[in-house]
Specification:
The chain has three helices and ten strands; from the N terminus they run αβββαββββαβββ. With 230 residues, it is an alpha+beta fold. The strands form four sheets. It has a four-stranded antiparallel sheet, covered by helices on one side. The protein has a two-stranded antiparallel sheet with strand order 1-10. A hairpin with a 5-residue loop joins β5 and β6. The chain starts with a helix and ends in a 42-residue tail after the last strand. The N terminus and C terminus are likely disordered. Bound molecules: zinc ion. The site of zinc ion (ZN) has 6 residues, from β7.
Length: 230
């Protein structure tokens, strides 16, 4: 009897929760509610710097490590983003990709594991077009300087050179790697549509985060101040 009572109370609570969520879902042009981040995983090679596909709005010529494309695609479906920079550095053929000397030393842009985002169809000003980007930033970094896995660093309001009207920087956690090289592994959130990949495995020892607290930002972030970086 007491068990049945407990169960029905639980069902009622669930129903109330579901009802309270419904209006929120209804007003979202982009379905932002579902978070796939209950678990993340480490993707081991083969990584490669590839062009960003048309399904992810971007500046012509932008490229990233292909292992973050499923996550980026997932984000682009839910938030009206426009990628302004991804990989920054040389290609094997000697051609240069991305902005030149615009990221700080050690930036994840030098490994193709970071993107800079602005609103799709924005006008450059911090106006209503940035609202979804702000929601994306808060989703990726609910508390300043504590990004949600698999993000390594999130640059937005409170980070110099980032924020509404400037850009949102997202970096994915990855194995330590010199600039312009492919990281051994990248941490991603599963989206259920990744290409074939090697079985999940973890390093024998917990991966040490790459040096520096951010996507190349080399100063302390507490207090919400940091140097202009990515
Ligand atoms: Zn950046």
């Amino acid at each position: 009897m007491s068990h049945r009572l407990r169960s029905s109370a639980w069902v009622r609570a669930l129903a109330i929760f579901a009802l309270s969520c419904a209006p929120l879902l209804a007003v979202c042009a982009y379905a932002e509610a579902a978070s796939p981040l209950a678990t993340t995983k480490l993707l081991y090679g083969p990584g490669k710097i590839v062009p960003i596909p048309a399904s992810i709005p971007h500046e012509e010529g932008d490229m990233v490590d292909k292992r973050i494309l499923p996550d980026l695609r997932w984000i682009a479906k839910r938030y009206p983003i426009y990628v302004t920079d991804g990989y920054s550095g040389p290609l094997p053929n000697g051609e240069h990709v991305g902005c030149n000397r615009c990221h700080v030393k050690g930036s994840d842009h030098y490994n193709g594991l970071a993107v800079d985002l602005v609103p799709l169809n924005g006008d450059g000003k911090c106006d209503a077009t940035w609202a979804p980007i702000t929601r994306l930033a808060l989703w990726a970094e609910p508390t300043q300087n504590h990004p949600r896995a698999p993000f390594r660093w999130v640059g937005y309001d409170g980070d110099a050179g980032h924020g509404c009207g400037h850009h949102l920087h997202l970096s994915w956690e990855h194995a330590a790697v010199p600039q312009f090289e492919i990281a051994e592994w990248v941490e991603v959130f599963p989206v259920g549509e990744q290409p074939a990949r090697k079985p999940r495995k973890r390093p024998k020892t917990p991966p040490a985060p790459p040096p520096g607290p951010s996507g190349g930002i080399s100063t302390v972030h507490s207090g919400g101040l940091s140097v202009r970086g990515d």
